[in-house]
Specification:
The chain is α/β, with parallel strands linked by helices and about 270 residues long. It contains 11 helices and 9 strands. A 9-stranded mixed beta sheet has the order 1-2-3-5-4-6-7-8-9, with helices on both faces.
Length: about 270
């Protein structure tokens, strides 16, 4: 496997690059000193590792941060087959190991939380895990969420662009327009295949896997997060867990990076 990094922005602590894996090229962002504890950051759908840039700049002095783009999103290759949670987990484990993250802490937001659980269930790898907006869902909740998943179908008159913009603005009408624009472009890049990640979450045996994990886990969610109602249920099944409520929505990592960075600093310590 090959790894190549290049500093894109001299004003930022973040480096970008690609890792060649058996599943395709994985694009990533990284920051910090390799001598510090490693932190793996797993993003939500249909965003990318860009959602962690503010947090990475805040934590680069204390951690070795690795934020890969999930296959099919950001700058990573599309998977050669229909994606599922196992495929996401296996590809990102390979990328994480190739990058040199040894026994990392792991932080996953929404889909990233599912991926972190699958990775730890398959082969324990993390010191501690933070699950932000953990998708601990009942069958009824999954069915309701499925109704809201709309494929991006390209229309000649471009109406699909307006529909996508309106859907993203509805998630947070107060969001900075540049944030909506960024997510809009990332959704377009994922195209009709962005729905695969959602259905990978719905088909994931998250509830049973989470209940079997031994390592310390913190579950957290913002008071306006679409998955805030899953917080109590996820906490109840943890073998070694903590719970923390905070203020924010699905964009908490972008809108309240100081809050998230503080949660990471407090929980990601070796006691």
């Amino acid at each position: 496997m090959k790894k190549k990094s290049v500093i894109r922005n001299p004003q930022s602590a973040i480096k970008k690059g690609y890792i060649e894996t058996s599943y395709g090229l994985i694009h990533y962002r990284a920051a910090g000193n390799a001598k510090n504890p490693s932190v793996l950051l797993l993003h939500q759908t249909a965003s990318s590792s860009v959602m962690y840039e503010k947090i990475m700049n805040l934590l680069a002095d204390s951690y070795f941060l690795f934020a890969p783009d999930t296959l099919g999103f950001g700058g990573s290759d599309f998977p050669t087959e229909t994606a599922n949670m196992k495929l996401y987990a296996d590809s990102l484990r390979e990328a994480t190991e190739a990058f040199g993250c040894k026994k990392p802490f792991a932080f996953g937001h929404h889909t990233g939380a599912s991926i972190a659980v699958q990775m730890e269930f398959d082969a324990p790898f993390a010191r501690k895990i933070i699950l932000s907006g953990a998708p601990y869902l009942t069958s009824e909740q999954k069915e309701n969420f499925k109704k809201g998943i709309q494929s991006i179908v390209i229309e000649k008159d471009g109406t699909h662009l307006l529909k996508l913009w309106q859907r993203l603005r509805a998630k947070d009408e107060t969001a900075d327009l540049q944030l909506t624009q960024r997510e809009f472009l990332l959704n377009l890049r994922a195209g009709e295949r962005y729905t695969e990640a959602y259905f990978a979450v719905f088909n994931h045996d998250f509830e049973n896997q989470l209940a079997q994990i031994e390592c310390p886990i913190l579950v957290t969610a913002g008071d306006e997060d679409t998955l805030k109602d899953s917080l109590d249920a996820a906490f109840r099944v943890l073998k070694n867990g903590e719970m923390r409520r905070t203020i924010g929505n699905t964009y908490i990592c972008d809108q309240s990076p100081e809050t998230v960075a503080q949660i990471i600093r407090e929980f990601f310590t070796d006691e």
